[in-house]
UniProtKB/TrEMBL annotation:
Main function: Adenine glycosylase active on G-A mispairs.
Organism annotation: Sporosarcina gallistercoris
Gene: mutY
Co-factor(s): [4Fe-4S] cluster
Name listed for the protein in its UniProt record: Adenine DNA glycosylase
Source species, domain of life: Bacteria
NCBIfam families assigned: mutY
Length: 350
DNA sequence: AAGACGGGGTG
DNA sequence: CACCCAGTCTT
């Protein structure tokens, strides 16, 4: 989208929002304290989960004074099951600051409100814009997803510094006449339409979306995956031909063990018979499989539990593209993974 | 910049 | 089961 289209964009966005927005409890109030409570509850938590908690919390602590004076244990009880319990401890601490230092008036500037416990860049912007109508950015994961597509921003949203790019872009586009609706509309869009798997045909602003124009909406946002430890169970099939040759396949050039040769293998699905799984994954049809080896192999970020099966290929089985037979001599000449050579060693020794 | 913090929904 | 999600604080 071009910045010059700002006015048409905001008209389309806000019209859609006013028509389609969900009726949520915190959208029926303009009390800054209630907005604050809702925004804290909504951090990392779904709307449907929050609603009953919000109702009960507001009923029990209807004013900032009542929350400030309450026992922490009592407050915590109202958060039970919501998770991230430091949120509510920080909320109460922040409310105490407002009651004690700001005459129970939540500050109206980003710099001041950011000093409050539990209020970070997102919540600051959300409260300022929604409760006070101040044109401030409120950038969360949804906003980054939506804007990355609208403007084809391809920077990695997993990097903290990238958020500044989005905050600046929001400030360029935000509707100064109704910042509250603008911020909520972007988040509503991200929650209902511009989801990870976007439903572009329903989108009120797809005509402004650069990613949609170029068919790249599925590729955005760019987010490097955290390398979490992964554990997989792999079934490898040592399939031999009557002549004594082994059936191997080459791994993809890219990624782990690129271009290495290995036994046909599948990620083990416990609910499925191994031979059936092999057939559906590779097309190979085997007569039978007999377990002959089992070991663990650890790569940098993934642990394989390898189970080897000695199997006989059915006469009628197809040999898929990328598979070929190797004699023992030929095998010496091609690269193979550690799990592969371990299995081979096992076979030779037995 | 990376890790901790909870729980629930989803493919 | 891995991954995602309306973030903030600590290290």
């Amino acid at each position: 989208m071009k910045i010059s289209q700002k006015e048409e964009f905001n008209k389309a966005l806000l019209t859609w929002y006013h028509q389609e927005k969900r009726d949520l409890p915190w959208r029926r109030t303009s009390d800054p304290y209630y907005i604050w409570v809702s925004e804290v509850m909504l951090q990392q938590t779904r709307v449907d989960t929050v609603i009953p908690y919000y109702e009960k919390f507001i009923a029990s602590f209807p004013t900032m004074e009542s929350l400030a004076e309450a026992e922490e244990e009592h407050v915590l009880k109202h958060w039970e099951g919501l998770g991230y319990y430091s949120r509510v401890r920080n909320l109460q601490a922040g409310v105490k600051e407002v009651v004690g230092n700001y005459e129970s008036k939540i500050p109206r500037t980003r710099a001041e409100i950011l000093n409050l416990r539990g209020i970070g860049p997102y919540t600051a912007g959300a409260v300022l814009s929604i409760a006070y109508g101040v044109p401030e950015h409120a950038v969360d994961g949804n906003v980054m997803r939506v804007f990355s597509r609208l403007f084809m921003i391809e920077e990695d949203i997993a990097l903290p510094k990238t958020k500044k790019v989005f905050e600046q872009r929001v400030m360029d586009v935000i509707d100064e006449t109704d910042p509250s609706s603008f911020n909520q509309a972007i988040m509503e869009l991200g929650a209902t339409i511009c989801t990870p798997n976007p439903r572009c045909l329903l989108c009120p602003v797809r005509d402004f979306c650069t990613a949609f124009e170029e068919g790249k909406q599925e590729e955005l946002p760019v987010k490097t995956k955290k390398l979490k430890k992964k554990v997989m169970t792999i079934h490898s099939f040592a399939i031999s031909e009557p002549g004594g040759k082994w059936l191997l396949r080459k791994r993809p050039a890219q990624g782990l063990l690129g271009d290495f040769w290995e036994f046909p293998q599948i990620e083990c699905n416990p609910s499925m018979d191994s031979a059936d799984a092999l057939k559906s994954a590779t097309g190979l049809v085997i007569e039978q499989g007999e377990a002959f080896a089992q070991f663990k192999h650890i790569f940098s970020h993934v642990t394989w539990h390898v189970e080897g099966y000695h199997a006989v290929l059915k006469d009628s089985s197809p040999i898929p593209e990328g598979y070929r037979f190797f004699s023992d001599e030929e095998l010496e000449l091609v690269p193979q993974s550690k799990p592969m050579s371990k299995l081979l060693m096992h076979l030779k020794n037995n």
